[in-house]
Amino acid sequence: MSTPKDFISLADWSTDDLTRLLELAMEQKRTLKKEGRLPASHAGKVLGCLFHKPSLRTRISFEVAIRQLGGSSLYITDKEIGLGSREAPQDVARVLERYLDGVMIRTFAHENATVLGRNATTIPVINGLTDLLHPCQLMADLQTILEHKGRLDDLRVVYIGDGNNMANSWLNAAGRFPFDLVISNPGGFEPDTAVLENARRINPGLKYEAIADPVKAIEGADVVYTDTWTSMGQEEEAKERRDVFAAYQVNNELLAKTGKKDTILMHCLPAHRGEEVTDEVLDGPQSVVFDEAENRMHAQRAILFELM
Ligand code: CP
Ligand code: NVA
Predict the structure, then answer these.
(1) Distance between CA atoms of 104 and 162, rounded to whole angstroms?
(2) Can you give the pLDDT at residue 78?
C-alpha cells in the first residue's frame, strides 16, 4: 500500500503510515515547545481552507500549522465557490490545483471531499470534517491517548452517544490500531454500516462491540469519548435528539461505572455542556479535551508536512 496523496479517510492509510504521522506530530510538538519554532520547510506553500460549515479548532489549527512550517493559508467559504451549484466540483478541483499546494475541505456530503481528491490530481486534499468522517480529529485523539496512556494497544475505548462522523472515524481507527472499541448508541443512531463493514474488511480481527446500554458499555473503559448529539446540519432535530439521548449523558455517575480511576474523558469539542457531557466531567480531573484541541494543530501539521 503506497502512501496516499490525500488525507480523506483513515481507512485509506496503512497502520505504518499513520504511526509515522503520529510520531512526527509528537516530535515536532517537542521541538516547538523546546525551541519555540520549526524549520520553514514549507516556505512559499499555500494551503486553501474551504469551509461549508463553521469551525473554531479546524480553521485556526490548520492556519497556524501551515504558518509554523513557513507557509500560508487562504480561508475560502462556499459563498465564493458555490461547489456543485455555481461550478461543478471536478472543475473547482482542477482550478484550485493550479493555484494552491494543498486543499483542506470541511463540508456536508463526504463525496465533495472525494471528488475534489480525485480531480485535483497534483495536490493533496485533506478532510477537515464531512457528515461521514472527521479523520484529522481522530489523529489528534490518538496522539492524545498516546501522550496520556503511552500506548494504543491493550486499551478499551468506549464511545457513548450519536453514531456520527466521530463514531465512524473511531471505527476506522479501530481498523488500523489494536485497541478494543465499544460504541454505545440508542437504536436507530448506530454508526454507518458501510464504514463498519470496511473496517472489518481491512482488519478481520477488528475488536468492536456495539452495546446499547451505556452503563454496561462503559465498564472497564480506559478512554471514554463523547460528542454532540446534534451535529452541524442537524439543528432542526436538536430537541428530539435531546430526548432520545438523555440516558447517554456522560456525567460523574456514569463515569464512575468504568470501575477505573485513571480513565480519560475525551470530546472533540464543541461540547454542549449539560447535554452529552456535564460541566463537572468536562472540567474534571479526567478530562483531556483541551490537550485534544491543542493536538489538532500538531497532528495536522504532520499531515501537511508529509503531503504538501
Ligand atoms: N473539533 C472540531 O473540529 O472543532 P471545530 O468544529 O471548531 O473545528
Ligand atoms: N459531530 C460533530 C463534530 C464537530 C467537530 C459535527 O459534525 O458537528
Answers:
(1) 25
(2) 86
The answer, yes or no, to whether residue 18 has pLDDT greater than 80, is yes
Evaluate: CB of 268 within 6 angstroms of ligand 2: yes
Residue nearest to atom 7 of ligand 2 (CA): 231
Nine-digit cell string for 56: 473554531
Dist. CA 279–CA 271, nearest whole Å: 10
Residue 106 bears catalytic tag: yes
The answer to whether the beta carbons of residues 166 and 268 sit under 8 Å apart is: yes
**Do 22 and 144 form a contact (C-beta atoms < 8 A)?**
no
Domains within the chain, CATH numbers bracketed: 10-134+295-307 (3.40.50.1370), 137-293 (3.40.50.1370)
The pLDDT confidence band at residue 28, using thresholds 50, 70 and 90, is very high
Asked whether residue 266 carries a pLDDT value surpassing 90, the answer given is yes
- pLDDT confidence of residue 2: 82
Beta strands in 13-134 (DSSP E): 46-51, 72-77, 102-106, 125-127
Which one-letter amino acid corresponds to residue 129? L
Ligand 2 pocket, residue 97 CB under 6 Å: no
Contacts 24+ apart (CB under 8 A), 10-16: 10/133, 10/135, 10/138, 10/139, 10/169, 10/172, 10/173, 10/175, 10/176, 11/172, 11/175, 11/176, 11/195, 11/198, 11/199, 11/202, 13/176, 14/176, 15/176, 15/177
Q: What is the DSSP letter of 209?
A: E
Q: Considering the candidates 42, 68, 136, 137, report the single residue annotated as catalytic.
A: 137
